[in-house]
Amino acid sequence: MKKTVTAVMVMSVLSMSLYGYSKEERAQDMQVMETAMAQIQKGILSNNDKMVIAGVDNLKKSTSNVEVAPKWKMDYSPSYAKQQTKNILAYADKIKSNIKEDRKHGATSNYTKILNECISCHNKLRKWK
User: Fold this and answer.
1) Which of 38, 55, 91, 97 is deepest in the core (most CB within 10 A)?
2) CATH of the domain at 71
3) What's the total number of domains in the chain?
4) Residue 74 half-sphere exposure, CB side, CA atoms within 13 Å?
5) How many other β-carbons are positioned within 10 Å of the β-carbon of residue 37?
6) Does 13 reside within a domain?
7) How far apart are CA 67 and CA 56, in angstroms?
8) What are the b/e assignments for 46-83, b being 16+ CB within 10 Å?
C-alpha cells in the first residue's frame, strides 16, 4: 500500500514537471513583447499604420502566450497577472481602432497605457525600485 501511494505521488510530481513554463520561455515571450512595442512605437513615429497594426497583432499574440504561474510558485496573486494581461490586450485593441480611425494621439495614449502596465508588472514581479 505504501509503495502504491508513493508511486502515485512520484508520478503526479513528475507529470506536473514534464511541461512547465520555464523562465527562459517567459523571457523569450517578454522579448517578443518588447519587440512588438518597439514596432508599434516606430509605426506611430513614422506614420506607418501597417507597421502599427502588425506590432499590435504581434503584441497580442505574444501577450496571449505568456502563462501565469500557479499561486504557489509566486509571491503575488495570479489574478494580478491575469488583469495585467487583460489590460494590455484591451489597450492593444484600442490602438488598432485608433489607427483605423486616424486618431494618432489616441493610439499614442493607449501605447503609453500599455507601457505603464508593463512597468507596473515589472515593478511588482521583479521588485524594481
Assistant:
1) 55
2) 1.20.120
3) 1
4) 16
5) 21
6) no
7) 19
8) eeebebbbebbebbbebbeebebeeeeeeeeeeeebee
Per-residue pLDDT of 36-51, as tens digits, reads 999 999 999 999 999 9
pLDDT tens readout for residues 101-126: 999 999 999 999 999 999 888 877 66
Looking at residue 24, its pLDDT comes to 84
Q: φ, ψ for residue 77 (rounded to 5)?
A: -80, 135
What is the DSSP-derived secondary structure letter of residue 20? -
Structural domain for 79, as ranges: 22-125
pLDDT in tens, 1-58: 666 655 555 555 544 444 466 778 878 888 999 999 999 999 999 999 999 999 999 9
User: How many whole angstroms separate alpha carbon 117 and alpha carbon 111?
Assistant: 10
Q: Is residue 74 part of a domain?
A: yes
Residue 14 lies in a domain: no
The three-class DSSP label of residue 121 is: helix
Answer whether residue 8 is part of any domain.
no
